[in-house]
Amino acid sequence: MHSSLILWLYSYLKPYKTRIGIALFALLVSAGSWLMLGQGIKYVIDEGFIAADSQTLETMLSGVLAIALIGCVATYFRFYNMLWLGERVSANIRNALYTKMLALDMHFYSTNRTGEVISRFTSDTTVLQSVIGSGLSMAIRATVTFVGALILMFVTSIKLTLLVMLAIPCILLPIKLLGKKVRYHSQLAQDKVADMSAHIDQSLHGIHTIQAYSKEEADQSALHEKVEEAMRAAQDRIHFRALLIICVMGISIFAIVFVAWLGATSVIVGNMSPGSLSAFIFYAMMAGGAVATISEVFGEIQKAKGASQRIRELLDTPTPIHSEESEVTSLALDTIADTTPILTLDALSFAYPGTDKLVLNDISLRLLSKQKIALVGPSGAGKSTLFDILLRFYDATDGSCYLAAHHYQSLTLGQIRQQFALVPQEPVIFATDIATNIAYGDQNATSSQIEDAAKLANAHEFIVKLKEGYATQVGERGVKLSGGQKQRIAIARAILANRPILLLDEATSALDANSEASVQAGLANLMANRTSIVIAHRLATVQHADTIIVMDEGKVVAQGSHQTLLIESELYRELAKLQFIE
Ligand SMILES: Nc1ncnc2c1ncn2[C@@H]1O[C@H](COP(=O)(O)OP(=O)(O)OP(=O)(O)O)[C@@H](O)[C@H]1O
């Protein structure tokens, strides 16, 4: 029933066989000790207590204490090792999830919510951790105890045991029926929690806008609704789980009381010793307790099944864009002659996965080394999409891409992406200090290299004016920096990365004239002696590009210099007119 879950968990548990061995051994010893305690009780009553022999009573009691002590020590080892395994396995699953997360492609991220992914890391792995650490351990211990207690019950009295066993089908029935309900509601509750995480994630990212629009109350009530939905789902799960536990407990207690009554009658007529009856009841209660534990853990295991399903779903998500082995050992794009194409697109078309609208339509381009190339065109023309294809975030639906003379498919993802430095429209700044943010371009850079890059990017001046200079913490997503400062840090990062091709999505946000000039000077340094492809939103900045490519509705409609395009391309003329450049 739970074989797929167990098998999957086993693949994570396999490396820790010694610890599992110790835990299982400790488990057997502790279960054995508690079972032996029943025999001890029998002898204490029959040989010491009833025979009124204080010497035997003392010996027996010491024996009982020794057994209890062994049971305690073994329990410690079982507990420690099982909890350790739970923590270790969930930590390893988190690592595996993170590796997968880094490999998942843009299609995944455009169709999934980040909050849901985060909830796999946090809540789902925590469920597994508790199931391995305590749930599984309790289930195994209860099973061993149940089997042991049953055997000893048989040894003590076959007749009474057979009578007790009549209760078993009555116990299994609620487990079967209510277990199904528990599983269904567990899955639902976890989904609701993931939904809630997604909402929180979105609000955290948009907190600035929420507060600016005074939408706190509306957002609070939207979350409140989700919290309540999660609560309702959890409530249903708890209801069925509690029902399951009391059914099992009630039936077990009823059976034990009934059997105790029958046993007491046997003791009265002298067919059974009082010690045996006490031991029998002790075992029957242990067996009953074990069944109750199993039914309780059953709910936990159902919950874990849901969690593991979601984790496995993520781990098994296919990644169509992956790195193949490559026979190309060195690309050496730096050494390409200036008149040779560094990038070639050959009849390239692209539609986003799951759609059939061609966002890029039959594009053929030869981009020469060391040239400054500008991409212009109306919003939605496909300029950003072209960048994504160049970085191989997506594979072209039709046609081909070449770096120098190498087809993209003959290169690894790393080989392709290492040729590009990307400066996006919204600079991505990490919540750490300035030096680390710049060094993202080259993690082995020395501090003087970092400073040189910052100087070229026109960032050094403002950085040294900050209280802690390069060690200044910039806050989450760089909130402590201005727009222009963030852009210059992103430029310094790209300068330090020193990649042969620069992909620049020019910022549209208005900077003041000073800041703009500063950023432009930094960009000029970045583009010097490099192939650069710039998505230009303002034509003023690209008039001196070597080639301007005009895109419209996924097609290249014209290309050439500013002057030729003013004459040859109506669309370019229109764009220029709109921006008062002619
Ligand atoms: N992940 C996606 N899934 C489906 N369609 C998308 C996706 N991303 C973009 N598109 C669509 O692709 C088209 C081209 O978008 P793209 O962002 O490349 O245009 P753009 O020229 O960069 O526009 P802008 O100048 O406004 O940034 C648009 O119609 C857009 O709706």
From TrEMBL:
<dbReference type="InterPro" id="IPR039421">
    <property type="entry name" value="Type_1_exporter"/>
</dbReference>
<keyword id="KW-0813">Transport</keyword>
<keyword id="KW-0547">Nucleotide-binding</keyword>
<feature type="transmembrane region" description="Helical">
    <location>
        <begin position="146"/>
        <end position="173"/>
    </location>
</feature>
<feature type="transmembrane region" description="Helical">
    <location>
        <begin position="20"/>
        <end position="38"/>
    </location>
</feature>
<dbReference type="GO" id="GO:0016887">
    <property type="term" value="F:ATP hydrolysis activity"/>
</dbReference>
<keyword id="KW-1133">Transmembrane helix</keyword>
<feature type="domain" description="ABC transmembrane type-1">
    <location>
        <begin position="22"/>
        <end position="303"/>
    </location>
</feature>
<dbReference type="InterPro" id="IPR003439">
    <property type="entry name" value="ABC_transporter-like_ATP-bd"/>
</dbReference>
<protein>
    <submittedName>
        <fullName>ABC transporter transmembrane domain-containing protein</fullName>
    </submittedName>
</protein>
<dbReference type="InterPro" id="IPR036640">
    <property type="entry name" value="ABC1_TM_sf"/>
</dbReference>
<feature type="transmembrane region" description="Helical">
    <location>
        <begin position="59"/>
        <end position="79"/>
    </location>
</feature>
<dbReference type="GO" id="GO:0090374">
    <property type="term" value="P:oligopeptide export from mitochondrion"/>
</dbReference>
<feature type="transmembrane region" description="Helical">
    <location>
        <begin position="242"/>
        <end position="264"/>
    </location>
</feature>
<dbReference type="Pfam" id="PF00664">
    <property type="entry name" value="ABC_membrane"/>
</dbReference>
<dbReference type="InterPro" id="IPR027417">
    <property type="entry name" value="P-loop_NTPase"/>
</dbReference>
<dbReference type="InterPro" id="IPR017871">
    <property type="entry name" value="ABC_transporter-like_CS"/>
</dbReference>
<keyword id="KW-0067">ATP-binding</keyword>
<keyword id="KW-0812">Transmembrane</keyword>
<dbReference type="InterPro" id="IPR003593">
    <property type="entry name" value="AAA+_ATPase"/>
</dbReference>
<keyword id="KW-1003">Cell membrane</keyword>
<dbReference type="GO" id="GO:0005524">
    <property type="term" value="F:ATP binding"/>
</dbReference>
<dbReference type="InterPro" id="IPR011527">
    <property type="entry name" value="ABC1_TM_dom"/>
</dbReference>
<keyword id="KW-0472">Membrane</keyword>
<dbReference type="Pfam" id="PF00005">
    <property type="entry name" value="ABC_tran"/>
</dbReference>
<dbReference type="GO" id="GO:0015421">
    <property type="term" value="F:ABC-type oligopeptide transporter activity"/>
</dbReference>
<feature type="domain" description="ABC transporter">
    <location>
        <begin position="343"/>
        <end position="578"/>
    </location>
</feature>
<dbReference type="GO" id="GO:0005886">
    <property type="term" value="C:plasma membrane"/>
</dbReference>
<feature type="transmembrane region" description="Helical">
    <location>
        <begin position="276"/>
        <end position="298"/>
    </location>
</feature>
